[in-house]
Structure formats: structure tokens, C-alpha cells
Amino acid sequence: MDTNYLLNELLNYGIDNLGLDNYEVYFRINELRRLFKLNELKFSRIKNKEELPDLLLENITKRALDLKIEMISEAHFKDQLMGIVTPSHEAVVQKFFTYSDPKEATNYLYNLGVKNYYIQKTAIDRNIFFGNDKVEFIINLSRPEKDNKQTAKLLETKKIDFPACMLCLENLGYEGRDNYPARYSIRIIPLTLGNERWFMQFSPYSYFPEHAILINEKHQNMVVNEQTFSKMLDFVKVLPHYFVGSNASLPIIGGSILNHEHYQAGSYHTPLRKSTEKRLLLKTNEVFLYEIDWFLRSIRLKSENPEKLRAIVTKVNDFWENYSDETAGIKAKTGTTQHSALTPFCYKEGNYYVFDLIFRNNYTNKKYPDGVFHVAPEYQNIKKEAIGLLEASGYFVLPGRLKAEIERIAKVLVANEAKISADESPLNKHYRLIQDVIDKFGIPENLDEAEENIKNTILDTCAKILASASCFKATIAGDKAFEKLIKTLEGVLL
Ligand SMILES: [Zn+2]
């Protein structure tokens, strides 16, 4: 196949699958012609067979390498190709807002992202998902692990690099560099949240279907305050089929990027949302406040009136940020260093606006240098990074290394070699997990059964991780401390 034919296939893919229209095509023909240093590129309509561009991109990139076309990497080059045949930012935004049904609008943007390779569906489908009603995990095979120290450092350093960070507007159309992705193919939707200019993009890693990120146009630190709640409510008014959640603005209990204000969003219902209301704690000013049945002690606030709801949620936030209970080990702050924060989620349920608020605290001491209310050390073989909002809502994103480790553990189990001493085993750090699998399920007959047992045990561990990170444990003392909190909160709200 000659280069002209391959590029024609790409252009036709853009027309048929991405909505590239008549006149725009001609601008893109010339762009491709320049990129491939061709004197001419003859365009003709051909029938496309491919649903996804993977194979097409593979072929064209191979040809480009043969022709010695300069590229940072094959991945960067593929993104550039797809950026060229995707409709312009303006055309995409215009189309998004022509849909009267918000579901159709988000479907359009999401499918565009999948079809134009920004969301790499083929790679994402390799992620391993496992779950039940209470907790779910994916083993993420597309992104490296970060630890809390790196994250805290990121908050301190003033970056002078371009783009200022992974979320900044400067990424739009960026060609990328070594260890930094290209963003030719990204398309975003501008939003006004709390009278501020924000935009929505889908996550290229797509930890769950339609995993979106809402980003402040300004590069400024994460914060959770009254404005946050206004912005979240504004968002669910525009896209009522999506939830929005914000990480706490502190390390250990926050997300991986603390220096640029952003939220996570999507149509997916994580286990937290499915958790039941245990009891009505109080009703005030048209707002209902419930305790919910969740591993990390949390409350749910509901109202048909978003303004009144925002006012109460703000009071709860201010209250928690200043609440200390030394007997329960809860220290709101040390000097001016804040420890307590909420992880808030907002969504619509029928006519009700709902906030799920998780009580979090990042206090550290000599005994628990990683955090008192952090993953207990005995579970850090599964997850050692911050318990961000997705994990806190029962959806764990686990590191890719676990895939190979599960396979190795399965072999050990089937061979019934699990009694090897902890020190000698290369799977040393999973010794406890292996013992737990055997205690619960016995010796498996084959590898499939072994993997299933391991995954179920990891799921149990995820639940234990959440319980271990709760500010109020499911113990008599924890219940008592929580009652005290609720009584004090009632005094503030009623
Ligand atoms: Zn930024």
C-alpha cells in the first residue's frame, strides 16, 4: 500500500468516525502532506472497515519510520495523526452543546475520545476489573505508581516547566516530550462553575467508563470550601447523570495532583453511592442528614433545595475542619498545619441534590509515619499510596505490578508451596495475603481457581484498608467517638 493510500484511509476514518467535515478535510490533507514531506496527496473517498484506529495507526507509523519522519516516540506520533483528523476544538464544543439531552452530549464526547485514540480503549480493556456490591478494584496497566512523598513534593515545588502541570490549559495541542504525553487529540468542553471558568475532559486512562475530569482554567491549589460545593452543584445541574467528587486538599488523603484544582466526575456509580442510609441523624432547613453504611465513616445530606443544601454542607465542612477529639486521636490541626478535611461527592437522585461527605484526617505520628488514618502497614502490599476519592468511595485503582504478582501467587498456591518461610519467598510482602487465601479457600485445583481466590482476598483487603483509614473505627470506642461528633454537630446545625 502506498503512503497516499494509507493517509487517505486515515482521512476517511476522520470523516466517517470522527465527524471531520467537508472543508476541514482539505486543511488536514495539507497538514498530513507536510508532515510526510509529500509533494502531493490525492484525496478520495474510500470505505472504512475499522471501528477503532489501532491497526491503521500502526501501519501509518510503521511507514513514517521507514520514511524517517521525525517523531518523539511512536505514541506521540500516533496522537499527532489523530489530532490532525479530529474536528477542531470549536467544532466539537459547538456539537456538544447542540444536544438537548445531556446524556447524548457526554456520549458524543466520550465516543469521540475513544474513536480518536485519546482514550486508548484497546489498552484500557486490558485493565483487570473485579468487584462486588461493597468494593471494586481495577488493576491499572496503563499508569505508574506514585507515592505520597512525591505528591507532597509536587505541592511544594514551583514548576517552571511548560506546561505548568498535567492539567493546565497549555496541554491543549501540546506535542509532548520524553516522559510527557502529547495532547493533539484531546478535546474539552468549557463550563462555568461557581462563576469561574472551568473545563471538562475525559481521563485518557479511563479508570471507569466515562471517567471525566473537571479542571479550573487557573493553575491554583486544590481547596474544599463553600465555593467547592457551589461548583459541584452547578456541575450536576448541567449534567445530572454524572456525579462529581473532589479530593481533600491535603496529602495522604488527597489525590495525586494537589497544585491544580480539579474534580473527578462520571456516570459510574461507585459502591459508596450504593451504600444504604443507616439512620436519619437530623433534619434542618429542608436538608436531611443521614449516617450511611460505609467503611469510612460518612454522612449523606439530601435536599431538593441546592442553596440550602450548600449552606448546611458548608457548615459541616467548617465544623469538621476545626473538630478535635484527643481521646479518639483526632487532631484537626497542628499549629497552622491542617489535618482534617472532607472528601465530598455530589450527585442528583431524582429531584434531590445529594452530598456524600467522608470524614478524613492526615495526621501522622512516630508510630504511623504514613498517616494514622491511612492504609494500615499490614495492607500496604496491596496499596500504599494516598486513599484518594475513588478508593474512598470503594473503587480501588491498584498498581499494574499486581497482575504479575497474582499470577505468581497462583502458581505457588496450585503447587501447594505456600508454607515457604516469609523471608525466603520472593513474594515475601504478600505472605500474609497468601496465608489469608489458604485460610479462606484452601488449596486450589487449578490456576483459574487460584486467581479467583486471590482476587476475592484482595477485595477483602480493600475493605479492610478502608476500615483502617476511617477516622471512626467500627469498634465500641469508634462508635462512641462518632456519637460525640454527631451530638456536637447537631449543636452547630440545629
Ligand atoms: Zn496546572
Helix content: 25-40%
- The count of DSSP E runs of length 2 or more, i.e. the number of strands, is 15
Q: How confident overall, as mean pLDDT?
A: 93
Which ligands appear in the coordinates?
Answer: zinc ion
Structural class of the secondary structure composition?
Answer: alpha+beta
Oligomer: single chain
| Distinct helical segment count | 16
Strands ordered across the widest β-sheet:
3-4-5-7-6-13-14-10-9-8
Euclidean distance between termini CA atoms: 75 Å
Shape: globular
Please mark out the parts with pLDDT under 50 across 5 or more consecutive residues, or reply none.
none
Task: Name a few traits of the molecule.
494 residues; alpha+beta; 10-stranded antiparallel sheet; 16 helices; 15 strands; globular; binds zinc ion
Topology (elements, then pairings):
Layout: H1 3-18, H2 22-35, H3 54-66, H4 74-84, H5 89-96, H6 102-115, H7 121-124, E1 128-131, E2 136-140, H8 148-156, E3 189-193, E4 196-202, E5 212-216, H9 226-238, E6 243-245, E7 262-266, H10 271-274, E8 277-284, E9 287-292, E10 298-303, H11 306-321, E11 333-334, E12 337-338, E13 340-349, E14 352-361, H12 389-392, E15 395-399, H13 401-414, H14 431-441, H15 447-469, H16 476-493
Parallel strand pairs: 2-15
Antiparallel strand pairs: 1-2, 3-4, 4-5, 5-7, 6-7, 6-13, 8-9, 9-10, 10-14, 11-12, 13-14
Helix pairs in contact: 1-2, 1-3, 9-11, 13-15, 14-15
